[in-house]
């Protein structure tokens, strides 16, 4: 009969797999923190008459700092973005 130290232990294997998974997930999360460039925020606007005002406001904001870049999205496919799992970060609906 094999000694207890050489016997297959499912609990030990499970612990090792969980530890490896935690390390992988932590590493991938930290890799996202070291991404270069500004954070991009998509701002959806559905009111056509407000587009020029917000375009100017966003340009002013983007030129005032370099950590966050706001992108104006005035397309009419808001619902499609939600269905694809890629909705805007912010929105102004009328």
Features:
single chain, three-stranded parallel β-sheet, elongated, 94 residues, 3 helices, alpha/beta, 47% helix
Largest sheet: 3 strands, parallel
Give the beta-strand count.
3
Label the structural class.
alpha/beta
**Overall pLDDT score:** 78
What fraction of the residues are assigned to beta strands by DSSP? 15-25%
Report low-confidence residues grouped into runs of 5 or more: none
So how many helices?
3
User: What spatial form do the alpha-carbon principal axes imply?
Assistant: elongated
Rg for CA atoms: 24 Å
Strand order of the largest sheet: 2-1-3
Order of helices and strands: HEHEHE
Termini separation: 75 Å
Provide the helix percentage.
Answer: 40-55%
Keywords: Signal
Protein name: ABC-type glycerol-3-phosphate transport system substrate-binding protein
Organism: Pseudoclavibacter helvolus
Describe the 3D structure.
The protein has 3 helices and 3 strands; from the N terminus they run H-E-H-E-H-E. Helix content is 47%, strand content 17%. The longest helix is centred in the N-terminal third of the chain and has 24 residues. The protein has a domain of 54 residues. The radius of gyration is 24 Å and the shape is elongated. Strand 1, helix 2 and strand 2 form a beta-alpha-beta unit. The chain has a 3-stranded parallel beta sheet. The chain is an alpha/beta fold.
List the helices and strands and how they pair.
Layout: H1 10-33, E1 39-45, H2 51-64, E2 68-73, H3 78-83, E3 90-92
Parallel strand pairs: 1-2, 1-3
């Amino acid at each position: 009969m094999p000694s207890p130290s050489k016997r297959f232990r499912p609990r030990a294997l499970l612990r090792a797999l969980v530890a490896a998974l935690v390390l992988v997930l932590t590493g991938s999360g930290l890799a996202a923190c070291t991404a270069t460039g500004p954070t991009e925020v998509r701002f959806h606007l559905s009111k056509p008459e407000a587009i020029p005002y917000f375009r100017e406001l966003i340009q002013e904001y983007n030129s005032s700092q370099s950590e966050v870049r706001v992108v104006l999205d005035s397309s009419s496919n808001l619902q499609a973005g939600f269905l694809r799992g890629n909705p805007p970060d912010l929105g102004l609906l009328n």
